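Side project, low priority. Logging it here so it doesn't get lost.
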Amino acid sequence: IMEKAPGISSDAITRIPMIWWAPDLFKKGHIAKEIVETVDVSTTLCTLAGLDKMVTSDGKDILHLLKGQNGEVHSIGVTEFLWSKSIRKSHYRFVYCPREMFADEYPDGFGELYDLEKDPWEMENLYFKTEYKSIINEMQRELFDWLITTTRPVTVLPSSGKPSEQEIIRYHNIIAADGKLPLTRIKSISYKNYL
């Protein structure tokens, strides 16, 4: 694990079991292989409690998985760290690093790509192999799409009118007409996106 220190987003660290227990609601012993994220927990708990979905969360309801059904929740799984972002899709994991991170060592850019079926411990980086370029491009597009469409304070989609109570509490400000918060008003984060 220490060999993965720069990103701390390797599959062995981020792919963790999620165990739920409610004998009257959930199917005993069901193992779901679908991609879910921790952000889905709050949305699912809202469903179980009969509350409205949180409008400031990108989480999705995974109750169908807990009841023993199958069905895609997310087509990708994203892990963020201060200086890298990782995307899991199918059996591949791609790590994006900003060009400035390794500018001297890799002037054309640096990243990581692993085939998790053949290499579950991520020992062979396929990023620089030309035969994987199309996979890298596809996963990079998926990551950029995700960054633009998630409800993060610096990339939030336009509001549909009057802000909700959740938005006001979280952001301490009404979302601007362009659908974004003024940077001076973002209190919920102390960093910014490098993408």
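Brief comment: The chain has five helices and four strands.
Revisit when time allows.
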